[in-house]
Design a protein that fits this description.
mainly alpha; Rna Polymerase Sigma Factor, Chain: A; Arc Repressor Mutant, subunit A; 2 domains; two-stranded antiparallel ribbon; 8 helices; 2% strand; elongated; disordered C terminus
């Protein structure tokens, strides 16, 4: 069914592409948000990726590779958004049809905040590898293919990202806690 939709979209069927986009938009937005950590930038990157995919769909040779191809386009759009760096705060936009992946509520607030601070310290290249590998469960060769980089580079980025996250968490753990305006 999916292959048929992709083939019809490649042939220029707008309705088929609209159906594909509808099924992809939630996942693409979730990935973009995990990479960019900013709602407005994630929305822009998702929209840019979907437009670029429609525009360049005729270049897709293998309909079965559609998902990996769209992920590659999305990651590039995220890199462009991160490079723009024009936004400093979140802007609320009602996107209605996007099903956002909700964070795991079983993690306590302190650990979640520490991990979030560490994740924000990573640049977009390292966050992309972490998101694709740990959040989406892609293998290292799949991550490399999606990002258009050699497997060794993907391994290196994943290693650097995990080391940076560990260092950030260790640094936070060594920082004295501040409770009610006093050092603990």
């Amino acid at each position: 069914m999916r292959r048929e939709l992709v083939e019809r979209a490649i042939a220029g069927d707008r309705d088929a592409y609209a159906e594909l986009a509808r099924t992809l938009i939630g996942r693409l937005y979730a990935v973009a948000f995990l990479i960019l950590r900013n709602q407005a930038q994630a929305e822009d990157a998702t929209q840019e990726a979907l437009v670029a995919a429609w525009r360049d769909l005729s270049a897709l040779r293998d309909p079965d590779a559609f998902d990996a191809w769209v992920n590659r386009i999305l990651v590039r759009a995220c890199h462009r958004e991160a490079a723009r760096g024009r936004r400093t705060g979140d802007v609320h936009v009602d996107v209605g049809t996007i099903d956002v992946v909700q964070p795991d509520r079983s993690i306590d607030v302190v650990n979640h905040d520490e991990l979030e601070r560490g994740f924000r310290r990573l640049d977009a290249d390292l966050r992309a590898v972490v998101v694709l590998h740990f959040y989406l469960g892609h293998s290292i060769p799949d991550v490399a293919e999606t990002l258009g980089i050699p497997v060794g580079t993907a391994k290196s980025r994943l290693h650097r990202a995990t080391q940076a996250l560990r260092a950030a968490l260790d640094a936070d753990a060594r920082t004295p806690a501040v409770t009610e305006g006093r050092s603990a």
